[in-house]
What does this fold into?
Amino acid sequence: MAKGEVVLTAQKVKKRKKTEKIVLISLLALLLFLVIAYFILNIVYNEGSFTISMDKNTYLESNLVMYESLNDRSSVYRLSTSKIAFMDNISIKWLPDNINNEAEGAHNGENYIAYTFYLENQGEETINYWYSITIDDIIKNVDDAVRIMIFVNDDQVVYAKKSAITGEPEPDTTPFRDDDETIILEKREGMNPKDIDKITIVIWLEGDDPECVNAILGGEMKMHMDINEEHVEERKN
It folds into this structure.
């Protein structure tokens, strides 16, 4: 082999090794990214289908506390519902008549999520607070047929996305807000000292909704509720 050929071959070998090294590093970086992404998604989608969080400043400034059971009023800042493996469409008529009073904490049924918790004013002044529900992720536009029923004590409101067909609210529902990802934002006024609010949240797919079609099969929806102080009013207006 001539001298020039030896040099050329050495350069080719060196270049090939460099390319292999770059490819290996790229594959390892991709693998690391996928592993991190898997663990993030695993945490997000396995901590519960619905989470409820209260800003710590709400307790510190207003003495509003949150807990799951009247038998244990230890204040917590985060609650999480239990997941259900599959949610088929049902009618609101199929929900238990006493769903607001049947249990504390998670009391899911067949094809619906239900969760009951409490907020208590442990301070000495009358306070107001806000509760909001925000969408974190939607797959296959499943929100088109989702219903969210919220009881505050015995007051019940059913929320739904406006009809994509008519642009009007669905029958017997209060429409989701449509200006940002916060689909529900409500103010609870005049909560007196020692008052306890019982809040029940029910989530299901409404089979009577014209947009509850096969196209949303396999869809998912991740959302959470926040409990905040009155200063939210200034931020949201």
Remarks:
- The helical segments are 3-46, 56-62, 232-236.
- The chain has three helices and twelve strands.
